[in-house]
Amino acid sequence: MKTSYTSIDLFCGPGGLATGFHWAGIKPLIAVEWSETTANTYALNHEADILPLARYLEDPASCASFFEPGDRTLLILGDINLVDDALIKKILESRFSCSSVDIVTGGAPCESFSMAGDRKEDDDRNELFMNILRIARAVDSKMFLFENVKGLFSKKHNGKAGAMYEYVCSYFESKIQGRPSYHLASKSKDVVLRKAVDYGVPQQRERLFLVGLNDRLQLDFTYPIPTHGPGKEFNFISVEDALMDLPQIDMGQESTIYEEPRCEVTKKARWYRDIMRARSLPSEHPITYLPNHKAPGHISKMHERIKAIRPGESMKSAYERLMAEGKEDLVARVFPKKIYAARNRRLLLDAPSFTVTSHCLDEMIHPVLDRGLSPREAARLQSFPDWYEFTGPYVEFHGSFIQDQYEQIGDAIPPLLAYALGLEIVNTLSKSGGD
Length: 435
Hints:
Order of helices and strands: EHEHEHEHEHEHEHEEHHHHHEHEHHH
CATH architecture of the domain at 5-228 and 413-430: 3-Layer(aba) Sandwich
Distance between the termini: 25 Å
């Protein structure tokens, strides 16, 4: 696909934002990611070269080939805090023969903002978002985009609940003499909070997006209007729409077979599956097999617990129902001593999924089969198309430095949500009239 606009993709993850932006016509020239397995996934799917930052800092001469003219995205593997402005400018000028990009994007790690995290006020990760403005200023980009979790709205700053959001907004609009400055398209919580389900993602995920506009330009950005739901052309995409055309494998099994089920489907299911199967939105990746469709195995106690959980129930609600039914023996045999409300939640076929997170292997149960989801199924709920292949280990201990396939998928921005935002960004840029 021919792209007309360019970006720098900070905290790029496995490439959810880049995929949606690609559909909209925006190409990343530079990406930055700290996790090697995640960077490998991005590079594979977005035809990027990987520049090891540690090697460059130790011996710049050994990395000279990365600065030769080319058109492939350059992904910097390393700590964003060590990626200085000079390196960004050097890559743009020597590799891409330009000095700026249209937009700098970034979804800084959200653990310290998330309601599920410890939310410490002095967490070093609280300051990572500043790199977005730093690099936007360095290249004088026309726009920037900051993505994060809804929990940022209530995060404390200087002991005041909710003040972190105000601090982030004021920082993005701060002025430095002689440097580019930006204003936010909106700070209204009702406006900047977007629901993935409203844009065709089969998932009840909420994320906030702050859009910065360069003060030297006359830019006007409007947040995308929802395309799905009651009263729209298509209602919300359900779990059934998203998953049930995939091979229905049992726990521990894997399938790479890619066939079209021969059955009648609804119009909205066909719309979604056409995107997943690369029949509608553009892709340069032919689908010859189905990657990452390996179902988890479960020990017998876990499998028996899963079988006892009904659609829409979680470990906690199933535990309460079984206890009320007098099935204490079953509960004592297969349920843990500590009951978690967010674990072992069986999906409903006729509704969108709840939020896919980095813990999705432990949190999500297939709506029909008695097992957890495969990475491919989790990716479908995130709206990653089937050509998108996730590299790295199938599963790792969650505290590991290595990001496994499930964690990569759960941490990503849903491509269809990114696509909706990307279309509006392109609309804004197309009216900018240049520099």
